[in-house]
Structures are given as C-alpha cells and as structure tokens.
Amino acid sequence: WLSFGFKTTKQNKRIKDKGLSKKAYHHFGVCITTEIDWGHRTILNDLPSNTACGIYLTFSFKKISTKVTLKLIRKSMGHTLEILSNIIKHPGQIVLLGVFFNPQIIAYVSTCKTLFYFFPMRIINVLIRISYYEYALTFAKKKFSILKHNHIRQIIFTFGLIIIFLIGSITIGPLIYKLWLNNKFDLSFIFLLIIIFDVSIYSLKSTLTILLSSLNKNLTINIVELIVIIIAMLTSYYFLFLGYSFIVNFIIILIS
Hints:
disordered N terminus
C-alpha cells in the first residue's frame, strides 16, 4: 500500500528492449537510473541536463487488504507479546527500581545487566534468530527428521555456550566488571549468579521454543510468559514497598 519512485518535470522516458524496462532521470547534473534487467543487454539513456526530478511517496487505502492485514497481525502476535514481555521485564524493572532506590543503585543494576545479561543475550539471540528461516523452510519441505536433528544440535550448541558463559562470568567476570567501571562498584557475587542464571535460562528457553517461533506457533507460550512476568513485577512491587532489597526483584523474576 506504499508506492515509491521518482518523477520528473518532463515526461519520463521509457525504453523497452527484449524485456528491459528502464527510466533514466537527470537530477542536478547527475544521471539517476532505475531499471529492470531480465538478463538482456543494458541500454543507457540520459535525459537532458535541465531535467529535474524529485522523489515521491504515495499512500493509498485502496491497496490495503483487510484480510491480509489481519492475517499478518495474527501471525505476528506471538512475537509482539514476546517483545512486550521483554519491555516489562527490563525497562519496566528499571522504572520499578527507580521508584524505591537511589540513582546509584539504578546505575549498579544497569551496568551489571549490560555486561552479564544483554551482551551475552544478544550474541545467543543472533545465533537463534538466523535459524528461523531454515527451520521454516525445512518444515515446509516436510523434512521432519532433518528438522529434529538440527534442533537437537542447536540445543546442544546453545547449552555448550551457556556453560562457557557461566564459567567465564564466575571466574573472570568480576575482574572485567571492575576494570570496565574503574572500581566504581563492588560486584556482589550473589547478584552476579542471579543475573547469569537468568540470562542462561532465557537463552535456553528461546532455543527450546525456536521451532514454535519460526512457524509462528508461539502465541500460547508468550501469553503465559507475559502473564507470569506481570505477576512477578506486581509481586516485586509489593515486597519492595515493604522495604526489601532490590535483589528480591531479580529473585522473583528468576523464579518466574
């Protein structure tokens, strides 16, 4: 329902030669061309140098299909709920802690999660999400034995990465954190364990459910996850209101 292209002050030149359709435009003395080449020879055609052109973008409700739009919304709902759960879990957590604690605590939490949660999660998510198309294609071809084999291999691979990450975080993680922040904060070992186990469980969960996500069959599991994280945040608010430490919030989220 969106159209993009060029238009000129003069009539566009269209040249056809053995299946080739080309428009050539001249803008500020520079020739701009768009072409559809079906494998035949290319023909260059320039308009006069005084021909000006501009970019246009048109919107038309006539090109919108309600049926297709609703279908796309329904198929993407599971992924949308997953994003919503992550928004509540991470930015929502910072907002919640900001209500009860000072900026130093917020900075401490943010830096710990950046190094020990978001950084490894991004790496593992890249390895997970690039497999979506392959799983969907294999499923479409009904190669279920290959699908099962690849899924098991990916679970083993992710589990191995998690083990390496856990060992590395426990052994050299505190040192890296101190060097990174120039000893601004003292990293709590208990807090470190909670964060790395949380991201490990999340990464393993994402790998286990990758087939559902690649086939857009993850609506139910993400509805459950959204409900659980909302309950966890409400429970955390209650305990923080009673004066408990911010670590209680992380423990509740880990349990959930």
